[in-house]
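In the previous chapter we treated chains in isolation. Here, by contrast, the input contains two separate entities that must be folded as one system, with a combined length of 687 residues.
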Amino acid sequence: MSNYAIEFNGVWKKFARGEKYDSLRDLIPSMLKMALRRKKQEELGEKEFWALRDVSFQIGHGDALGIIGPNGSGKSTALKLLSGILKPNRGNVRVRGRSSTLIELGAGFHPDLTGRENVYLNGTILGMKKAEIDERFDEIVEFSELREFLDTPVKRYSSGMHARLGFAVAAHVNPEVLIIDEVLSVGDYHFQEKCFAKMQEFVRRGATLAFVSHNLTAISTLCKNVLVLRHGVPIFQGDVSTGIQKYHSFYEEETKSAAIELLDVSLRSESGEERDIFEPGEKVRFEIRLKALKDLEHCHPGLQIHTSDGQLVFVTATSRLTNTKLTLARGEKARLSFSLDLNIHGNVFLLGFTVTPEIEVPGEWLYYNPRLKRIIMTDSRKSQGFLHMNPSVEMQLESEKRSVELAPNL
Amino acid sequence: MNTVALSAEEDLSLSPGRHPTEEFAQYKELLFMLTRRDVKIRYKQSLMGFAWAILMPVLVVGSGLIVMVAFAAMSGKPINKLDVLSVAVKSVPWAFFVAAVRFATNSLVMNKELVTKIYFPREILPMAAVFANLFDFFVASSVLVVILLVAQIGASIYLLWVPALLILLILLTVSCGILLACANLFFRDVKYLVEVLLTYGVFFTPVFYSASMLGKWGFVLLVNPVGPILESLRNTIILHRGPNLPWLAYSAVWAILGLLITWKIFKRAEASFAESI
């Protein structure tokens, strides 16, 4: 017996770009082409690209693997290969045990059939026997919270109801291997929590899980290991926190600008040490040397901090801080140093740098890169939450018999 | 490639790469559910309901009668009861064949959602399409049986052929269905071609008239493998005599070899369905 529930061995998968042969008129030329390059099944033809290149991973029985990566990195392709919907061009895929795939909630629901009929239909499509569905029917309905709509055609359901019923059926297939694509992004918060709890229950009960999501909190809670993909190439495979850091490092990028060239960029601690990991409450210096590629008049450099999922946390500019503006002739250089108190908490943040022209036009920049550097904040021992508010406390008892207890060694 | 069977539960595994027939056996229930779905949808929210199952055959029989009246007027021979019933006996299965092949041709493309999102053996979709039409066929056939009883057509030992003939017809329909469904997935104009062939196919098949009416050119109608089956149905039900065995064997070869070959083609093409649809 093999130790692995899922094996992905040296898998390559290619897709065609652009138009496919869609009418019979194209049959003869396409057949000729196929005959001519018969042997090159495994090679890349024109208009083709590799969606996955030489990807290998194994998941042991009862383990959970998260698959993360930017859009278009091949995550969903990997899951479709696992479920058998797609077949690899090279390499092989093995799944041992009864598996259930959730690529889309409620795929296979028929709009004209009622909720009840669709539970049976979808359950069968997902591989359940009728007897099993009979047995679990009440549980499924309970989970979906749709009892009073059971005899309504699904076409009259809201998209949230649709997703709820879809997950409810899928969650009761009781698979040994569960393959899930981003499904937590639908429905309201309450329902997402419920789905997540169900997935945790699966893992606890010893099911094997392959899970694709952009929700890194969900990934790090469910999975010990992650696979990081980028452009179809496995970049990293291993423990979840390192993987997530790797994933975030994709977001640091270079930007080209016709007006300004950055010569040096660094993040330094108070003591001048260059690093990107900081504790909440620490001071950081953000130093930039830049060169003007053309004459610049009265422009204002600024900085931005975003969370890794793109929410703006903080923005400032020299014009706001010191009421100064930057004027440089072509070829001249300048040095800037911003100081910040990093009163933020355990997460990854992206530090951006911008240079705005004198007359601000929304969306027009001399230089714009919201992802110049990343700042990794460690957790604070003193507090939790989004902000670090530099807390202190005083506590006194109005009694003479007792004194304030000290927690041992916090 | 095969997975190792570990336990009884393991047999339910959906893992790809197992033997196709073994895998298919596990999906019998899905075939049943999808057939039921297709039947249900047809009768749900529809004006016609069960009358739908009768309409097509009635239209075919009706046009057959007109053709016969025209023939009778030309040749001067009166129309007899047996000829009218023969047209009915051949029209009902022909209507089934046409509707089932048409429906099956579109089955994969119509279920795009399922093909791209969930794994199961894809031949289930065209087969469910054929079986859903088989349901209509049985509805229409029961009406036909009542008519035959009323007309006191009588019975003979040759009626034992009928189940075998129907099985051949179903096999033939399934093999056309899975081949065309697959072709239509890759080339979307296949359905128009099928539409045209099915519309005019009635003139190349002994539905309104029998092959013998064409004299030595009768074989033209029998080359189409549905032809000998329809003729045999007429022989056994209406004329109380055995089928033309050589021609029936010809159809049987088509049905069985056809199914084996189209199944192979379908299975080979299946791997690229999800990315080509």
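Residues 39 and 168 of chain B are 22 Å apart (CA to CA). The radius of gyration of chain B is 20 Å. Compare these points with the single-chain example from earlier in the chapter.
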